[in-house]
Write a structure and sequence with these properties.
- The protein is of the alpha/beta class.
- It folds into two domains: 57 residues, no CATH class; 267 residues, Nucleoside phosphorylase/phosphoribosyltransferase catalytic domain (Pyrimidine Nucleoside Phosphorylase, Chain A, domain 2, 3-Layer(aba) Sandwich).
- It is built from 16 helices and eight strands.
- Strands 1, 2, 3, 4, 5, 6, 7 and 8 form an eight-stranded mixed sheet that branches.
- β5 and β6 form a beta hairpin.
- α1 runs parallel beside α3 and α5 crosses α16.
- The longest helix has 19 residues.
- The chain is globular.
C-alpha cells in the first residue's frame, strides 16, 4: 500500500513540475490528477500545491472542460426530462467578495413562473454569508432531495434544487483543504467549477463569474462541453469591482455561446430603462435576511433596486432559455411573473413540496 501511495505522490509531483514549466495538462493528466485529488491517501499539502500552481499558471479552457467531464462521471447521476419549458441553470461562481442577496435563487422562481424548467445547482456559502442552499433552507425549502424525489419535484413545480454536497459525495475528502486555501484567499480551479458541475447537465445556462476576463474562458469551456445556449456575465460595480450577476450599477460584460458560436458584448441596463442602483442598495445579509428579501420581491412589497436586479437577471435567463427574443422582452416577462403573483406561487409550491 505504501508503495502505491509513493507512486501516486510521484505522479502528482511530476504533474506539478509540468505545470510549473508552463505546460497545460492533457485530458489523461487531468484524469490522473482528479483521482489523486479525490483520494484520501495523498497528503493535503501535495493537493494544495497542485491546485495552487495550476491557478498560478492559469487554467486553460481545455483543462477546465476535462475536469468537468471527469468530475461529472463521479457525480450522482441525475437525468431530468424537459417537462414543459427548456431546462436551464442559473448559477454564479461566487468569489466576488461582495455580499449581495441571493440573486440567482430569486431568479429561479421568476424563470419557472415564465415557463422555464429550472434545475438550480448550488451549495452552502463559502465566500459569502449565504449560499443558495442556506437561503433556500431559510425559506423552508427541502434542499436535500435524492434523484427520484428531485425529478418529481421538478415535474410538479417546474424548478428544483441540486445540492452540490449531495450530488458530489467525492468532494467531501477535499472540504477541509479547500477551507484552508479559502482562508488564505488562495483561489483554485474549484472556485471556477461550481456552475459547470450540475449533474443534470443542462444545455442552457446563465452563469455569473467574478471577473470579466473569465467570461470568454467560460464560453470556450461550455462550447467544448456541447452547451446549446449560455450567457456568462460579469457586472461592473465601479472601477475594478465586479459582481457575478448582470449589474444594475454599471456595464456588464457578456460572453454568449449559441450552439458552436461564441460572441461577446457589453450590456448596460440603463439602456433598457432600469434605474441605476448603488452598491449599498443591493447588499444582502445572512440567510434569514436574504430569504425575507426574496419573499418581499416575489410578493411585490419590495419594489426598489433589489427587485430591479432580479428583473434584469431574470430577463437574461429568459433570453438564454429562448423564451424571450431579447432583453426588453425578457424584462417585460420578468415583471409580469412578479406582478401576477406567479413567481411567488412557484416559491410556495417548492416550500410545500416536501410537506
Amino acid at each position: 500500500m505504501a508503495g502505491r501511495d509513493d507512486a501516486a505522490g510521484g505522479v502528482m509531483t511530476s504533474l506539478i513540475e509540468k505545470i510549473r514549466a508552463g505546460n497545460d495538462l492533457s485530458a489523461f493528466d487531468v484524469q490522473e490528477a482528479a483521482a489523486f485529488l479525490l483520494s484520501d491517501s495523498i497528503e493535503a499539502k501535495t493537493k494544495a500545491d497542485f491546485l495552487t500552481v495550476l491557478h498560478d499558471k492559469g487554467e486553460s479552457a481545455h483543462e477546465i472542460a476535462s475536469f468537468v467531464r471527469v468530475l461529472l462521471e463521479r457525480a450522482v447521476p441525475l437525468e431530468i426530462e424537459e417537462i414543459g419549458g427548456p431546462i436551464i441553470d442559473v448559477c454564479g461562481t461566487g468569489g466576488d467578495g461582495i455580499d449581495l442577496f441571493n440573486v440567482s435563487t430569486a431568479v429561479t422562481f421568476v424563470l419557472a413562473a415564465g415557463g422555464a424548467t429550472v434545475v438550480k445547482h448550488g451549495n452552502r456559502g463559502v465566500t459569502s454569508r449565504s449560499g443558495s442552499a442556506d437561503v433556500l433552507e431559510a425559506l423552508g425549502v427541502e434542499i436535500d432531495l435524492e434523484p427520484d424525489d428531485l425529478r418529481e419535484c421538478i415535474k410538479r413545480v417546474g424548478c428544483g434544487f441540486v445540492f452540490a454536497r449531495t450530488y458530489h459525495p467525492a468532494f467531501r475528502v477535499l472540504a477541509e483543504m479547500r477551507q484552508q486555501l479559502a482562508r488564505r484567499h488562495q483561489r483554485t480551479i474549484f472556485n471556477l467549477l461550481g456552475p459547470l458541475l450540475n449533474p443534470a447537465r443542462p444545455k442552457r445556462q446563465l452563469i455569473g463569474v467574478f471577473s470579466p476576463h473569465l467570461t470568454m474562458l467560460f464560453a470556450d469551456v461550455l462550447r467544448q462541453l456541447d452547451c446549446k445556449r449560455a450567457w456568462i456575465v460579469s457586472g461592473t460595480v465601479f472601477d475594478t469591482l465586479t459582481i457575478d450577476d448582470v449589474s444594475t450599477i454599471g456595464p456588464t460584460v457578456v460572453a454568449e455561446v449559441n450552439s458552436e458560436k461564441i460572441t461577446s458584448a457589453v450590456l448596460d441596463t440603463r439602456w433598457l430603462g432600469i434605474p441605476q442602483a448603488t452598491l449599498p442598495e443591493l447588499i444582502g445579509g445572512n440567510a434569514k435576511t436574504n430569504a425575507e428579501t426574496i419573499t418581499q420581491i416575489l410578493a411585490g412589497t419590495e419594489t426598489g433596486p433589489k427587485r430591479d436586479l432580479v428583473i434584469a437577471n431574470a430577463a437574461a435567463g429568459f433570453v438564454v432559455a429562448g423564451l424571450a427574443s431579447e432583453m426588453n422582452a425578457g424584462i417585460a416577462m420578468a415583471r409580469e411573473q412578479i406582478a401576477s403573483g406567479r413567481a411567488l406561487e412557484k416559491l410556495k409550491a417548492l416550500q410545500n413540496y416536501a410537506l
